[in-house]
């Protein structure tokens, strides 16, 4: 079994003062690549789980979303950081689907696909709904922002979160993955 750092996207990896519907609207946070590189090197699978209801609502297409994610991976790769998998809920926010956070569906899907040990994995997000999805899936949780929150740790940004995860999960005893 593997352990993963499952990251929300908007407000965690990239800025989200405005919705990101096109690749050129994606701007990484300054220390995001460094954070992901740290997680890569520590043997965590790095996954992104993102609510993208804008697809269901018609603000962007599935192709736009794919292009945004290609761009994100490209920008991260330039700084030596790797995202191993991305899952998105593209349903309308009112659809009642099992994947839109705070529901844990995307985390369970990742766990099945990658044989994840969820109790040794981490969900990182900037909203309560991210923390709730993590708790419902049985992961540890990191909230980026100032609390109060139910998360196991409150971080300033993704690098702070990654440093805590590596400290906290360093001794889990699970086999490390090849970086
Ligand atoms: Mg977010
Ligand atoms: Zn969904």
Protein architecture, described:
The chain has 179 residues and is an alpha/beta fold. It has a single domain (4-168), classed as Rossmann fold, CATH 3.40.50.1000. It is built from 6 helices and 6 strands, in the order E-H-E-H-H-E-H-E-H-E-E-H. It has helices at 32-41, 53-57, 62-78, 105-114, 128-137, 158-169; strands at 4-7, 45-51, 85-89, 122-125, 140-144, 153-155. Helix 1 runs parallel beside helix 6 (158-169). The protein is globular. The model has no long low-confidence stretch (mean pLDDT 95). It binds magnesium ion (MG) and zinc ion. Magnesium ion (MG) binds at residues 8, 10-12, 125-127.
Q: What's the architecture, going by CATH?
A: 3-Layer(aba) Sandwich
CATH class: Alpha Beta
Main sheet properties: 6 strands, parallel
Structural class: alpha/beta
Tell me the β content: 15-25%
The counted number of beta strands is 6
Q: List cofactors, ions and other ligands.
A: magnesium ion, zinc ion
From N to C, what is the helix and strand string? EHEHHEHEHEEH
Strand order of the largest sheet: 3-2-1-4-5-6
Low-confidence stretches: none
Mean pLDDT: 95
Report Rg.
Answer: 15 Å
Tally of contiguous helical segments: 6
- Quote the CATH topology: Rossmann fold
Oligomer: single chain
Query: How far apart lie the N and C ends?
Result: 16 Å
CATH level-4 homologous superfamily: HAD superfamily/HAD-like
Tally of individual domains: 1
Shape: globular
């Amino acid at each position: 079994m593997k352990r993963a750092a499952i990251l929300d996207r908007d407000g965690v990896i990239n800025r989200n003062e405005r919705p990101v519907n096109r690749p050129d609207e994606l701007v990484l946070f300054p220390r995001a690549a460094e954070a992901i590189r740290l997680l890569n090197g520590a043997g965590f699978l790095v996954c992104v789980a993102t609510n993208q209801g804008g697809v269901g609502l018609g603000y962007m297409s599935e192709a736009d979303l794919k292009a945004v994610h290609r761009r994100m991976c490209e920008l991260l790769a330039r700084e030596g950081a790797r995202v191993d998998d991305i899952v998105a809920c593209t349903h309308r926010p009112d659809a009642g689907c099992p994947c839109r956070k705070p529901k844990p569906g995307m985390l369970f899907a990742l766990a099945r696909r990658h044989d994840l040990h969820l109790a040794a994995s981490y969900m990182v997000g900037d909203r309560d709904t991210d923390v709730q999805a993590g708790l419902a899936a049985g992961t540890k949780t990191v909230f980026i922002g100032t609390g109060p929150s139910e998360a196991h740790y409150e971080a300033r940004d993704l690098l702070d979160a990654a440093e805590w995860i590596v400290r906290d999960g360093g001794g889990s005893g699970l086999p490390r993955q090849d970086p």
